[in-house]
From TrEMBL:
<comment type="similarity">
    <text>Belongs to the QueG family.</text>
</comment>
<keyword id="KW-0170">Cobalt</keyword>
<dbReference type="GO" id="GO:0005737">
    <property type="term" value="C:cytoplasm"/>
</dbReference>
<dbReference type="Pfam" id="PF08331">
    <property type="entry name" value="QueG_DUF1730"/>
</dbReference>
<dbReference type="InterPro" id="IPR004453">
    <property type="entry name" value="QueG"/>
</dbReference>
<comment type="subunit">
    <text>Monomer.</text>
</comment>
<dbReference type="InterPro" id="IPR017900">
    <property type="entry name" value="4Fe4S_Fe_S_CS"/>
</dbReference>
<feature type="domain" description="4Fe-4S ferredoxin-type">
    <location>
        <begin position="174"/>
        <end position="206"/>
    </location>
</feature>
<feature type="binding site">
    <location>
        <position position="242"/>
    </location>
    <ligand>
        <name>[4Fe-4S] cluster 2</name>
    </ligand>
</feature>
<dbReference type="GO" id="GO:0008616">
    <property type="term" value="P:tRNA queuosine(34) biosynthetic process"/>
</dbReference>
<dbReference type="GO" id="GO:0046872">
    <property type="term" value="F:metal ion binding"/>
</dbReference>
<dbReference type="InterPro" id="IPR017896">
    <property type="entry name" value="4Fe4S_Fe-S-bd"/>
</dbReference>
<dbReference type="InterPro" id="IPR013542">
    <property type="entry name" value="QueG_DUF1730"/>
</dbReference>
<keyword id="KW-0004">4Fe-4S</keyword>
<dbReference type="Pfam" id="PF13484">
    <property type="entry name" value="Fer4_16"/>
</dbReference>
<comment type="function">
    <text>Catalyzes the conversion of epoxyqueuosine (oQ) to queuosine (Q), which is a hypermodified base found in the wobble positions of tRNA(Asp), tRNA(Asn), tRNA(His) and tRNA(Tyr).</text>
</comment>
<feature type="binding site">
    <location>
        <position position="192"/>
    </location>
    <ligand>
        <name>[4Fe-4S] cluster 1</name>
    </ligand>
</feature>
């Protein structure tokens, strides 16, 4: 018992040293409450063309199927809130999380360091690092481990920092001290629901992914449906509307991760420059960025969709 308390303290101290905003830990087990929700969400086709969401249903709900003998899920938050935004108010918009280096690389590196620390400090620990690219319900685990509550926009919210942060996990086969969930502080507020340009938040806490601007501009490989013409609020990659209007994000503070700083030219690009962007400029601007996911052709498609005809 005493060693698990001490080990937990060591892990949280090291997580802070590595730059994580916060660290919470929960007991690895089957996510009973999430199972019917996920099943219903998939059944209603709210994942659209994201067919990968249908895969590994059991693994998404039980981390013990991902790591043999898993006993703990260590959830971590990493702030990405930028100190400044795009200069031209008319320019097509990029979601704040994609300003700098692709977060997968940045966080994976920190998680490897944390796992290495745990193995050195505690002993022969087996574990795996996850950054939203594997079948792990990271938001559910963040909530379970007390890092925040699930907001009506289906983002994890905290009173101290709002929601502009990434969520990642280490699943390990060692028992630790477990945190408890915090209470919901959304109250009667419906700011996110009211502001969503495409009405993707179909009911409190439920987002229809197939209606979300982030889905259309990143995940969807086909043409964007014409029904959504004029409803994108000028977003060309991702969308921050439901976070921007959230009252808790008044407390967001700028990150201090150098790798999340944008390419020097990114924020100064004008509307005209975006509309005339070449593949060469695209490659320079987004060399190590998450925006590469759309490819040049995808970003051009999104920019053209925003133009008025």
């Amino acid at each position: 018992m005493e060693s698990s308390i001490l080990n937990t303290k060591k892990i949280k101290t090291e997580a802070k040293r590595l730059g994580f905003l916060s660290c919470g830990i929960s007991k690895a087990g089957f996510l009973e409450e999430e199972a019917p929700r996920l099943e219903k969400w998939l059944k209603n086709n709210m994942h659209g063309e994201m067919k990968y969401m249908e895969n590994h249903f059991d693994k998404r709900l039980d981390p013990r199927l991902l790591v043999d003998g898993a006993k703990s899920v260590i959830s971590l938050l990493l702030n990405y809130f930028p100190s400044e935004g795009q200069n031209d108010p008319e320019a097509p918009k990029i979601s704040k999380y994609a300003y700098g280096t692709d977060y997968h690389f940045v966080i994976k590196d920190k998680l490897k360091q944390l796992l290495h620390f745990i193995q050195n400090e505690i002993g022969e620990i087996d574990g795996r690092a996850f950054v939203d690219s594997a079948p792990v319900l990271d938001k559910a685990w963040a909530v379970k481990s007390g890092l925040g509550w699930m907001g009506k926009n289906a983002n994890v919210l905290t009173k101290q920092n709002g929601s502009f942060y990434f969520i990642a996990e280490l699943i390990v086969d060692v028992e630790l001290e477990y945190d408890t969930p915090v209470t919901d502080h959304c109250g009667t507020c419906t700011a996110c629901i009211d502001a969503c340009p495409t009405q993707a938040i179909v009911e409190p806490y439920v987002v229809d992914g197939s209606k979300c601007i982030s889905y259309f501009t990143i995940e969807l490989k086909d043409q964007i449906p014409q029904d959504y013409k004029g409803k994108f609020d000028n977003w060309m990659f991702g969308c921050d509307v439901c976070q921007d209007v959230c009252p808790w994000n008044r407390f967001s503070i700028s990150h201090n991760e150098p790798l999340f700083h944008p390419h020097p030219n990114l924020l100064s690009m004008t509307k005209k420059e975006w509309e005339e962007i070449t593949e060469d400029v695209f490659k320079k601007l987004f060399k190590k960025s998450a925006v590469k996911r759309t490819k040049f052709s995808g970003l051009k498609r999104n920019i053209n969709f925003l133009k008025e005809y």
